[in-house]
């Protein structure tokens, strides 16, 4: 996670300004925040229209566009007030959509328009549905179609509306129950347990990908397919499970049995694409959390609610709603946050419904990153402790030896000693020169070069990077980021940590554990005032440090211990980073 950009007032007019919905009036207007639901409703109407021409006209719009009062007033006046039936499926209830509900309801009462207010989830909301202008029986009957979801039920929902208000009961059918959870394998579709075993005949490590059932029902599978292919390319077996929700306790046992084939199928890691959290924000027992049953890493892959352009051009990377439901809340469940694997993309204007629809489009670089990340976790599980390589990195701010391994409210040196001892107990290879107390650890680090000015002139070093090898690495470094480094720091040979044909790095090797301090943000500058600068590109020695850890030492895991470091303060987005434009992602 990167540092968060802030905007005075908390509102960005470039992201949440007034929107004009260019749409002609229609007989039935359906508003929802769910793109998959809007897509299913549109497909249902198209299929019915192919069967019969004389149907009421339908209009669709995403309720998320109706944030500003001017947008709401204009849309109510130009479209909603001229309709015959309005269906609004709202997640958040009256309090969240108060102005919208008030204006729509007033227009409906003045113009004798039938208004259905439906909860956006599968739990009743008496306060919300009571503001409908039709009977509670009619609201409940229509709501059940949306709870089940899918194109077929959307056709029946349209049939229900036509029966109630257009004297046409041709298409009215009872809601069809659809499985709450189902297994899916790309290129095969919904599969049984036996079909899963046949598909994974090579017994590859299974990566469980969790996604909302609505994506399957709306055939919105592009991001899932792209991520699955990336996993397959890395020798992993992607097993998709589509779920209605992860919060209902009564479904957890069924989900675990389904995904593990009654405990016979080991799961190597989990990629979660659902939003919100399962646990309580107040803490408490985790026994009802599905993740605790698997005891494997859970990687959060983000299905962003914004467009790729907004992501690329914004400073924060994700919108406030994405930060809340796809980052903050999943972290409550212990998910490891990664990147946005999909963005919403304009599908163009649908002439039949005069509606602008969007779909989820895979962001391939992030899909590849998440697959790599998952593969590394699988590798970490499969590697014996004696072979694992660990980088243990301590803070050093300000860059003085007197401030080595500092931390607020934490004895970082002693904590590092405890970590090292624990690693040794667990069978990691640490050699013989193991510090037994914090003073010995600091003495060990300061025997070599540190960030203290001029220590490069008189102290020894144990770790270095050959300058020719490092220059070769820079050939693959993102061009625009490398240009920023050159503009700030000149050429590689000008770096203050270059001695002869080597870039000297701080730290000491304890067997397969690299004990070190985080490198300088720069030199010949005001270190204190630039340590947290979001604009200062790092020097070459900073790149060389993480290059050595990842490509030369080939660490299996990295621990930043103590006070926060400076990697997250490098230039780039706050969240959902991009390797081409964000230094933290490009470096590590």
Topology:
Layout (H helix, E strand, L loop, with lengths): L12 H4 L11 E5 L2 H17 L6 E5 L6 H10 L6 E6 L2 H4 L1 H14 L2 E6 L6 H4 L6 H13 L2 H15 L15 E5 L3 E2 L2 H7 L6 E7 H5 L4 H12 L3 E7 L5 H12 L8 E4 L17 H5 L3 E10 H6 L6 H13 L3 E15 L4 E8 L1 H19 L7 E5 L17 H14 L12 H9 L8 H4 L4 E4 H8 L4 H11 L8 E2 L2 E4 L2 E3 L2 E5 L9 H4 L9 H13 L4 E4 L22 H5 L1
Parallel strand pairs: 1-2, 1-3, 3-4, 7-8, 7-9, 9-10, 10-11, 13-18, 13-19
Antiparallel strand pairs: 5-6, 5-8, 11-12, 14-16, 15-16, 17-18
Helix pairs in contact: 2-8, 3-5, 7-8, 11-16, 17-18
Output the keywords.
elongated, 19 strands, 18% strand, eight-stranded mixed beta sheet, 588 residues, alpha/beta, four-stranded parallel beta sheet
Number of helical segments with 4 or more residues: 24
Structural class determined from secondary elements: alpha/beta
The main β sheet shows up as: 8 strands, mixed
First-residue to last-residue Cα separation: 13 Å
In terms of DSSP E residues, the strand content is 15-25%
What would you say this structure looks like, in words?
- This protein is of the alpha/beta class and 588 residues long.
- 39% of the residues are buried.
- It starts with 12 loop residues before the first helix and ends with a helix.
- The strands form four sheets. Strands 6-5-8-7-9-10-11-12 form an eight-stranded mixed β-sheet, with helices on both faces. Strands 2-1-3-4 form a four-stranded parallel β-sheet, with helices on both faces.
- Helix content is 39%, strand content 18%.
- Helix 2 (35-51) crosses helix 8, helix 7 packs antiparallel against helix 8 (151-165) and helix 11 packs across helix 16 (364-382).
């Amino acid at each position: 996670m990167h540092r968060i950009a802030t905007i005075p007032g908390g509102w960005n007019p470039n992201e949440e300004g007034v929107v004009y919905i260019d749409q002609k009036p229609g007989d039935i207007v359906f508003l929802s925040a769910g793109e998959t639901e809007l897509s299913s409703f549109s497909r249902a109407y198209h299929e019915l229209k192919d069967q019969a021409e004389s149907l009421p006209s339908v209009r669709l719009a995403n309720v998320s566009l109706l944030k500003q009062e001017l947008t709401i007033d204009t849309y109510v006046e130009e479209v909603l007030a001229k309709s015959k039936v309005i269906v609004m499926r709202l997640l958040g209830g009256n309090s969240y959509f108060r102005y919208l509900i008030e204006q729509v309801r007033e227009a409906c009462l003045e113009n004798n328009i039938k208004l259905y207010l439906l909860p956006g989830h599968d739990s009743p909301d008496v306060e919300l549905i009571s503001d409908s202008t039709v009977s509670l029986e009619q609201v409940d009957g229509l709501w059940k179609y949306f709870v089940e979801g899918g194109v077929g039920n959307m056709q029946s929902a349209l049939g229900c509306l036509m029966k109630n208000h257009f004297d046409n009961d041709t298409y009215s059918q009872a809601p069809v129950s659809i499985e709450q959870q189902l297994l899916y394998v790309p290129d095969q579709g919904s599969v049984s347990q036996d079909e899963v075993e046949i598909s994974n005949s090579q017994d590859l490590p299974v990566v469980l990908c969790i996604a909302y059932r609505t994506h399957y029902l709306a055939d919105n599978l592009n991001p899932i397919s792209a991520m699955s292919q990336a996993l397959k390319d890395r020798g992993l077996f992607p097993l998709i499970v589509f779920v209605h929700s992860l919060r209902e306790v009564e479904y957890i046992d069924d989900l675990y049995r389904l995904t593990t084939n009654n405990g016979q199928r080991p799961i190597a890691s989990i990629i979660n694409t659902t939003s919100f959290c399962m646990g309580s924000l107040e803490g408490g027992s985790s026994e009802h959390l599905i993740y605790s049953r698997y005891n494997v890493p859970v990687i959060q892959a983000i299905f962003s609610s914004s467009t790729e352009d907004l992501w690329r051009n914004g400073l924060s990377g994700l919108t406030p709603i994405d930060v809340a439901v796809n980052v903050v809340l999943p972290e409550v469940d212990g998910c490891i946050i990664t990147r946005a694997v999909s963005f919403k993309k304009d599908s163009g204007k649908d002439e039949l419904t005069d509606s602008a629809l969007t779909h989820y489009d895979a962001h391939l670089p992030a899909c590849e990153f998440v697959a790599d990340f998952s593969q590394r976790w699988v590798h970490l599980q499969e590697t014996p402790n004696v072979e694992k390589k660990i980088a243990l990195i301590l803070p050093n701010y300000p860059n003085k030896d007197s401030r080595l391994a500092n931390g607020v409210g934490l004895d970082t040196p002693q904590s590092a000693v405890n970590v090292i001892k624990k690693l040794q107990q667990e069978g990691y290879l640490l050699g013989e020169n193991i510090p037994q107390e914090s003073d010995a650890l600091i003495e060990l680090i300061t025997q070599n070069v540190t960030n203290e000015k001029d220590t490069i002139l008189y102290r020894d070093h144990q770790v270095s990077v050959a300058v020719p090898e490092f220059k070769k690495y820079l050939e693959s470094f993102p061009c625009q980021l490398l240009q920023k480094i050159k503009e700030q720091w000149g050429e590689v040979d000008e770096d203050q940590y270059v001695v002869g044909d080597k870039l000297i790095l701080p730290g000491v090797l304890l067997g397969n554990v690299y004990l070190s301090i985080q490198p300088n943000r720069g030199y010949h500058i005001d270190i204190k005032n630039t340590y947290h600068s979001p604009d200062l590109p790092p020097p070459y020695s900073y790149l060389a440090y993480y290059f050595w850890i990842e490509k030369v030492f080939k660490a299996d895991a990295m621990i930043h211990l103590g006070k926060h470091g400076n990697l997250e303060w490098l230039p780039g987005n706050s969240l959902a980073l991009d390797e081409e434009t964000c230094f933290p992602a490009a470096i590590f």
